[in-house]
Each structure stands twice: as C-alpha cells, then as structure tokens.
C-alpha cells in the first residue's frame, strides 16, 4: 500500500470513521486533544477550540474522545460496533486479523498466556 495507512490490509481512506465536533457544545476543555494518542486533533489557538485535523489517523471503532468529552460535543458517523462489524464483513478482514495476531504472538511471545503459568501462580 505504498506508505498509505491501512486497517488490517484495507486502505484507511475507504473508511469514513472519525470524530465530529459540535462547536456549539464544545467548552474548549481540550480533553479530546489530550486523550487521543493518534494525533487526530489540533488546537485552533485563534478560536481556542480543537479541530479534527487528521481524521484518517482515528482508529476505526474508537470513541474514547467522545466518551471523555464532558459536554457530549463529539460524535461519530455511526454506532462503532455496527460500523466495525459491517467493515469486517464488507472487506473480509478476519484472515488478515488472524495473520496479524499470529505475527504479534510470534514477535512478542509474552503476550501469550499459558494455563500452566496461571496454575503455578
């Protein structure tokens, strides 16, 4: 995918998933900008409000900023569970997810839990 972002092998630009800020509700607290670890937001200093500057960096299905917004000023295009489920079915993502999971476990074997280790604790 030549440097383009993807979500489990599917070009991220095909997904219309990102936060939408209702400026009439926003109290400029900055919680969205401070809690998003993916650099989706920027601060408009002249108006003292957050902006969705990098929508393609939003993790598909993530609604953390919206859940933490004290004024309920952030919404998303659809219900996250429905959106993700529909995307998984439309783009047949599960084979890629399984592959990525195996690669992660191979790279980080400590992410795998074995029953013997639990019994010994």
Explain the overall architecture:
The chain has 121 residues and is an alpha+beta fold. The protein is 35% helix and 13% strand. Strands 1-2 form a two-stranded antiparallel ribbon. A two-stranded antiparallel ribbon has the order 3-6. Strands 4-5 form a two-stranded antiparallel ribbon. The mean pLDDT is 91. The protein has helices at residues 31-35, 64-68, 80-91, 94-107, 115-120, and strands at 6-7, 10-11, 20-21, 41-44, 49-52, 74-75.
Main beta sheet: 2 strands, antiparallel
From the alpha carbons, calculate the radius of gyration and give it in angstroms: 18 Å
Order of helices and strands: EEEHEEHEHHH
Number of helices: 5
List the helices and strands and how they pair.
Blueprint: E1 6-7, E2 10-11, E3 20-21, H1 31-35, E4 41-44, E5 49-52, H2 64-68, E6 74-75, H3 80-91, H4 94-107, H5 115-120
Antiparallel strand pairs: 1-2, 3-6, 4-5
Task: Quickly describe the structure.
This protein is an alpha+beta fold and 121 residues long.
């Amino acid at each position: 995918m030549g440097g383009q972002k993807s979500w489990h092998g599917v070009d991220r630009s095909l997904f219309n998933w990102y936060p939408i800020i209702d400026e009439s509700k926003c109290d400029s607290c900055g919680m969205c900008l401070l809690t998003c670890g993916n650099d989706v937001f920027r601060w408009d200093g002249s108006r003292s409000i957050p902006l969705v500057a990098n929508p393609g960096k939003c993790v598909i299905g993530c609604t953390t900023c919206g859940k933490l917004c004290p004024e309920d000023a952030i919404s998303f295009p659809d219900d996250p569970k429905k959106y993700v489920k529909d995307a998984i079915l439309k783009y047949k993502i599960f084979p890629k997810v399984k592959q990525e999971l195996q690669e992660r476990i191979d790279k980080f074997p400590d992410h795998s839990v074995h029953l013997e280790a639990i019994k010994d604790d």
